[in-house]
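dumping this here before i forget
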Amino acid sequence: MTTSSPWLAELATPSDTHRQRALARQSQLTKPAGSLGELENVAVRLAALQGTDTPNAEQVQIAVFAGDHGVCDEGISLFPQAVTAQMIANFVTGGAAISVMARQLGAALEVINTGTVCAPPLSAGVIDEQVAAGTANLARESAMDAQQLAAALAAGDRSAARALERGCQLFIAGEMGIGNTTSASALACALLAEHPTHLTGPGTGLDRQGVQHKAAIIQQALARHYQQHDDDATPLTCLQSLGGFEIAAITGALIGCAARGIPVLVDGFIVSVAALCAVQLRPALSCWLLFAHRSREPGHQRILDALEATPLLDLGMRLGEGSGAAVAVPLIRSACALHNQMATFADAGVSNADG
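structure:
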């Protein structure tokens, strides 16, 4: 594996032997077949991905990637870009939603600065992976150049490497970046050949007029992108042209996790767009992804459909940060506990459906 080209890494292969053994065990537990629904599927998938008869999600690694976006010059957000750096400080001092969730779960939390306009108010506890002081304005030029894209992807891959060193059993990527729903929507439109009006949502709280303006800016960005890249429309060119540093880093992290045999729990809209890009780059990655929740962002369902993904939760969340994925972790832990600790019919002396 080369950290400069994480998207080229060979991906790990789930264990079919352990999948079959997990299915066999589920059929012998003291319950009607299929009665635990998706919890059974989660346990079986994790058994195969972790290569074990006792799947586990106690060691959770959460990586929040932050970065700013030049497209904010177009007035597509209610908040100033200084908020990105301020929230980085909030993450590491424990005041953000994901910080609270990480403490509750006993999860490791790292915060990675991929490139902000303003320096964070503090640096202690922040991993510095600054590519540049935010991306360029994607409505008028490519968001990043090829070297910047490679640097962001490699930053994500290094996060996956740290997760492996810590014995991570389940990886969650989160994001923070004023303007990043605009970038993610533009990237999704390019990857799926969708019109911006189908995928553009309120982000941090835009009203109807604000959403219309945001869609118009995305359409402008797509027109520029297609003019420049019509003969070279690959996931990487789309990511370079329309993405954000934090979105590219998450793409690299997802591929890096799959290369190292680490299952990933995917958060909401923005992380799902990074997942879409990663899967289009490396289709075999899809089996390593579990999906936590359906975001309230209107474009998320289209992304989930493209990934053939069924999320565990639908709570109307749209915060980001990895918060929706963190909320789903107790469900996954319950799935593992039920799989590992329930008695079989033979253990309990209970007659099964076959008598």
